[in-house]
Amino acid sequence: MTKALRVDPMDSVATLLTDAVAGDTVNIGDVGVVATAAIPYGHKIALRAVKRGDAVIKFGFPIGLASRAIAPGDHVHSDNLSTALLGELDYSYAPPDGRMPTPTQASVNSSFMGYRRPDGRVGTRNEIWVLPTVGCVARTAERIAARGNAAHAGKIDGVHAFAHPFGCSQLGDDLAATRRILAGLANNPNAGGVVIVGLGCESNQIDALLAEIPEQRRTLVRTLVAQHADDEVEEGVALVAELAARIVAPRERFGLDALTLGVKCGGSDGFSGLTANPLVGRMSDRVTAAGGKVILTEIPEIFGAEQMLMNRASDARVFEGIVSLVNGFKRYFTDHGEPVSENPSPGNIAGGITTLEEKSLGAVQKAGRARVVDVIGYAGRARHPGLTLLEGPGNDAVSSTALAAAGATAILFTTGRGTPLGFPVPTIKIASNSALAARKPGWIDFDAGRVLTEGFERAETALADMLCAVASGAETAAERNGEREIAIWKRGVTL
């Protein structure tokens, strides 16, 4: 029997849970529709006729316009559905209705074993991070970290270097953004100590970088200028040893109010907005209801769904911040001669997503129902309990690096296609479908496809348990695989 899932009673399409061939009767609850063509699972089938130019509805919202007439049972995809997205828009502010996620007994009782830092923040790891100021000493930083990790294994949670190619031949805001993102990483609570390795002649000078790091935090930072050292690797290893002796500490128990959670999706498919993203939204609600912080980014992947976030702005200032961020990012596209809807990716399309509106309506569900309390620019830092919107592109590595620089101590990363990539903080990879989870157990930590058989409540409990275990030290798949990368968003001129 072929089945499909309709999210909202107003929807004109449903998502297939299994493949269909022409002539199959597809059941949507008590309703049946006959497929007019072969349709892969995860793709959309029309439940009713849609005239050319009319909106196609999913999640209860338009996901684009029919580019030709659609009949019941048709495969709804790129050949008959197109985006309706435009450039910059005018928006109006409606104060939120006051409804917010309320603390449940589960969120109150949830806890993890973390590390308290001198400034009061809490890390989920006790590591030393080696950060190069410039690409010229990236391999030097990696050699220092490798030796330090071998020397101090078992005493701290690890020593890791984060290589990048930037820090020189950059100008103005572009250089400043590189400096701020590295300073944000140096300030992340998961790094008990930080060694900054400079070359000496680069644009990204160490003194200017240190000035971006909060003063109290600088007591845990050591610096090394390779051009001034007789043996830069030996000196770097000695600095790691000094920090390792200083930061050894036991874990302590904390509630979810001490957690800063980043939420991210990559390689979405037709199930992402039905299983994994709403499940992560429930985790976001748990954390914010307990008094913790949640950070949402990937601004181009809220185009078409931005009003949902604007309606949850805590006040007019935050609303204006969201408007400025969304329209500014659209301007970034149009200034470069690109349409704002140049998304979904080929992998998204193969997985059943057709338009950016559809992708965005699924993606924003990661934020749950919490009020948006702050809007911060790229390389900014989350400051307030609740949901923060962070400027950043959809690129997995760039946006996840920005989440870590903003203070995230764990990331929930949903995917319908899969990726081995890992980031500076522990990242739980959540498959939107069970087939991916079964095929790629070396990449995937959690199967959100179980939502379709078990329901959200059981899946939520299981994911919450995993989140607390990982925050307490359990390794993610990416950590086991040694997958840890950063990427910096370069937007300026290269000399």
Features:
495 residues, alpha/beta, Archaeosine Trna-guanine Transglycosylase, Chain: A, domain 4, Rossmann fold, 7-stranded parallel sheet, 6-stranded mixed sheet, 23 strands
Account of the 3D structure:
The chain is α/β, with parallel strands linked by helices. The protein folds into three domains: 2-82, Archaeosine Trna-guanine Transglycosylase, Chain: A, domain 4 (Roll); 127-248, Flavodoxin domain (Rossmann fold, 3-Layer(aba) Sandwich), CATH 3.40.50; 254-480. The chain contains 15 helices and 23 strands. A seven-stranded parallel beta sheet has the order 19-20-18-17-21-22-23, with helices on both faces. Strand 6 and strand 7 (61-66) form a beta hairpin. The model has no long low-confidence stretch (mean pLDDT 95).
Brief summary of the model shown:
It contains 15 helices and 23 strands. It is 30% helix and 20% strand.
Strand order of the largest sheet: 19-20-18-17-21-22-23
Proportion of beta-strand residues: 15-25%
**Rg value:** 23 Å
Largest sheet: 7 strands, parallel
Number of individual domains: 3
Protein name: Altronate dehydratase
GO molecular function, one term: lyase activity
Pfam family, one: GD_AH_second
Family: Belongs to the UxaA family.
Secondary-structure map with pairings?
Elements: E1 2-5, E2 13-16, E3 25-28, E4 31-34, E5 44-46, E6 55-58, E7 61-66, E8 75-76, E9 81-82, H1 105-109, E10 111-116, E11 122-123, E12 127-132, H2 138-152, E13 158-161, H3 172-186, E14 191-198, H4 206-211, E15 221-225, H5 232-247, E16 252-255, E17 260-265, H6 276-289, E18 293-296, H7 306-310, H8 316-335, H9 346-350, H10 356-363, E19 372-376, E20 386-390, H11 396-405, E21 410-415, E22 427-431, H12 434-439, E23 446-447, H13 451-454, H14 456-471, H15 477-480
Parallel strand pairs: 1-3, 12-13, 12-14, 14-15, 17-18, 17-21, 18-20, 19-20, 21-22, 22-23
Antiparallel strand pairs: 1-2, 2-5, 3-4, 5-8, 6-7, 7-9, 10-11, 10-16
Protein name: Altronate dehydratase
GO molecular function: lyase activity
Domain SAF: 11-82
